[in-house]
Amino acid sequence: MRIGIWGDSIVYGKCDSEGLGWVGRWRASLFKQDEIEIYNFGVCRDSSEDVLKRFPTEVGSISPDIIVISVGLNDAKIPVGQTETHVPLDRFKKNIQALLTSSQKYAQKIYLLGLTKADDGFIRHTGTRFLNEIIEKYNLALLESAQDCGVVFIPMFEHLDTSTDLSDGLHPNKTGYEKMFNIINENVKIF
Fold first, then answer.
1. What is the CATH number of the domain that holds 44?
2. Of 137, 144, 163, 179, which residue is most buried, by most CB within 10 angstroms?
């Protein structure tokens, strides 16, 4: 059984003091099951466009039985000096639809993770902003895309507390990643 997970820095596990993120925790929980392999294709700063470009090569290299996609926060960010999001919402929807359609060629079990909240108005040291009002619109687009493509949507937006579960205002800390792991572990049906 091979599980491929695509996304951004939250898939990668950035800011987890234990260095695991939710993917590493999931891998550790399945450690004794030799027949399960988990591949983490989380790349920091990736948007849906980046994942879409690299997806065909990466998915073909592992032939997964299960695909998990978690991307969108970098699409919804407002870069320094701009008023529009990094990837406009309409283009984001098309990217997600394309990712899900492509995924269905490789695996029967596909899961799409919802976005997590940021500390509202969070401004990175570069000046890039993340606003929950915008993140919610991108999150809704993920839900609608999952429904349109008949894949399982796993909501995350309401599960992390921005005052206790985030390390830097955007990325989860070890408590936040633990919460994410528990939700994903409960919702992804491996067998």
1. 3.40.50.1110
2. 179
Contact call for residues 110 and 147 (beta carbons, < 8 A): no
Q: What is the pLDDT of residues 54-79, one digit of tens each?
A: 999 999 999 999 999 999 999 999 99
Range of the domain at 99: 2-187
Tokens of 174: 């070890």
Total domains, the chain: 1
What pTM does this model have? Answer: 0.95
In this structure, how many other beta carbons lie within 10 angstroms of the beta carbon of residue 43? 17
Tokens of 64: 């997964």
Sequence-ordered list of residues with C-beta below 8 angstroms from that of 150, at least 6 positions apart, any chain: none
Question: What residues form DSSP beta bridges with 39?
Answer: 4
pLDDT tens for 121-168 read: 778 888 899 999 999 999 999 999 999 999 999 999 999 999 999 999
| Phi, psi dihedral angles at 4 (to 5 degrees) | -110, 135
